[in-house]
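User: Quick one: structure for sequence A, then sequence B.

Assistant: Sequence A:
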Amino acid sequence: MEILIVAATTMEIKLIVDELEKVEEESHFVKSYRLAGLNIDILISGIGSSFTTFHLTNALREKKYDRVINIGLAGSLIQELKIGEVVNVVSEEFADLGIEKQHEFLTLFESGYIGVNDFPFQNGLLKASDSADWINLKKVKGVTTNKSFGRDTSIAEMREKFTAHVESMEGAAVFYVCNWMGVSCYQIRSISNYVEPRDSAKWNIPLALVNLKEALIGILKFIQVPVS
């Protein structure tokens, strides 16, 4: 089975790489590893939708993968998720793609530029592939932004506009590209902070990274045996 793991930064993947057997370097961005019966390529895409879209599209044109798994840290928009908790993001929206008017922000759906069910969207959402039988994590909704929100006003506006549970900077781009290219896609995120006025003293990145590693390695070991 050929797996592509997509991470924005080397920090988010380093602990996971330490558990894998390195095979070769496919390119500056993609490196190959093995874990028992799995062939695992890792793409460091860069932060944000633009870099992720470009490098993931190139990777999928170069090689056929059975599954793409986007992994990384995320901010939680709800208090019900704990710092360090690892979640399975099953739907995504672009939070900053649209038109800003004097007193409101309109998504591309609300402004009429695209329909809510225009492929690959489903009722305005980008969906992950079904993972019910092999990812045993809490399933949440995500929102993707090209900036990490840190002001009361912008955070309140995002919460009012979207019903997401977690925020990242790449998830929707991964789902968009994979759905267009017909590749199964999934997203695993570990909560490093709450989305609130920025105070890094409240963050726990080390805990989030350790828990992300343990969750992902467990998932990879589970899918060494093909799922029927």
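Sequence B:
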Amino acid sequence: MAPPVRTPRQAWIDAALAVLAEAGADAIRVETLAARLDVTRGGFYRQFASRQELLDAVLDNWELRTVDEVRERVEREGGDAKDKVRKAGALTFSPGLLPVDLAVREWARRDPAVAVRLQRVDNERMAYLRDLIGTISDDPRDVEARAMLAFSLVIANYLITAEHDTGNRTEIIDSAIQFVLK
């Protein structure tokens, strides 16, 4: 008799990330994930000791994807600092990663441990922006202001629903990025 097929650990993490993006951290439940994966709950406990272990793995995976993998890809694809800033923003807040990032931000409002993790991730993102923008400007205050504006711009783009009088959202964001990076 063949051994039972086990659901890989990453499948549980990916399912949890999808639930996080759709319904928030409170919706990440073993039963929900097992149903989504069409497996029994027992398989979960062969991969994770607890729900908390899964939640930690979810945050680890989010951080890996949105910091390490983004930075690695940006550096591999190259370009000047302005190109890299644009690319990092586009990748970090891509349709595949943005919903999870926004869900983590909401989660961090209620969970101090997640808030610490989010702050660390944001600090890493800001440090990378400072490094890139520091090649455009040698004034530390200017570098900090531009990095803050660039980071704020990509997050606020998804939170602000205002219409624009002089162009569509993409055109306005492009103009704002050009302004920050000139």
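Residues 51-77 form the longest helix (27 residues). DSSP finds nine helices and no strands in the chain.

User: Thanks, that's what I needed.
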